[in-house]
What does this fold into?
Amino acid sequence: MININALRFRSLEIDHLNLPPGITSIIGPNGSGKTTFLRLCAGIAEPESGAILIDGVSPHQTEVGWVNEFPDKNILFPTVANEIASTLRFAFAPCEDIDRMVTATADLVGINHLLSRDMRKMSGGEKVLVALAAALVHHPAVLVLDEYDSHLDMNCAALVETALRHSGATYIIRCTQQMETAAHSDCLLYIDQGKVLHAGTPAPVFASLSGTAFYPCSWRCRK
Amino acid sequence: MKLVLDSLVVKREGWSLSVNGTFLPGVHLVSGDVGSGKSTLAQIIAGFQKPAHGTVSREGISKVMLSMQHPEYHITGLTVEKECASWGLNAPDILASAMLSGKEEESPFTLSRGELKRLHLACVLERATDLLLLDEPFSSLDCAEKERVCTRINQKHYGITIIFTHEQTTFPRVDHIWEICQGCLVDCGDMPGALERWQHAPARIQDLIRAHNGPRNLTTRDILEAAWQTHESG
It folds into this structure.
């Protein structure tokens, strides 16, 4: 379980929140604090006060995979294969293991054909897939994904969804603006103005958002 | 006014794109898979890249605007207010329309990515253009903001607007659909007939077409009306 208590960071205020294992999706208006919350969960930022504990330890004591919505900010190496391998190389993994794991992970997200390509020549969506492979390659316990799907087409998004569910990560915390994707989560949070206004399984959270643009279109079609 | 793409060929390592097409005034949607060349095509039409072969002819088009998918690439002002001024626009009006009033003195880079996209699109859509190229305009925007941008796009009653996107949920009313399939730009035609030929159509629209109740257009209202009709007739 991820336990959040008395968390304060910039405009974010969360008194008490528990996130179960599985996929947690975060939705809400632009500027509401979603990315800030993800950065805290990933250990990239430290709370000003309060705590986030992932199975009893802080995020930076946990293996975390992070995917930025704008992956250009995180790219370190010139080729796709080297970028995916970076986490394993920083951990001094054996070369033969690195090659095998890079190939397997690239296959999982459908980018084996890009391994020798120049990172600078990747499209926006391809960069997201590379960043996702780099995050998955070391089998982290926690995956934190910031609007990773905003640059993916329908087929790619479906492939990535399958990859996430087979990643072995205990916790996947993701921000998405695709409500159909959010509907397929174990836990859903709606954040607005720095506060978690709704939390729970998708059905009751979306019921609270009925009549707003955040209510899934497919659910409206069923009405 | 028309945009003519004649025998364009773009080649890169292990990848190529062939394009023929004529774009008339109205809203055009260009879809395609990740890495299919949507952004490259937008840059070629804007004149930022040269094709290996072929020509781009702009007839009766003088004002061209390309909105890149990453709003960071457009920023030139040190503050939000100066960014608006750099577009020759009135900051209070733009910030009110983007719901960013009160952030005048902040650096654009301290905004959230969605807020930055809102600011950028508010500036882009306020300018008069003959040819407006929008590369992934809906990425980073929240659901309510996507709908608002769609409304704003449909309020432009002049010129050619081309939207390059893989968006699956929220669309403006469009006049013509194109898609990139297997390295070629395919003309799916005018709406609503284009929907029958659109291979990248969102799953919900494909379901409605299979039920012989395709929507009249792509707006949320059109899709809901078609879904409800299908539900009632089913």
Remarks:
- The first helix of chain B runs from residue 38 to 46.
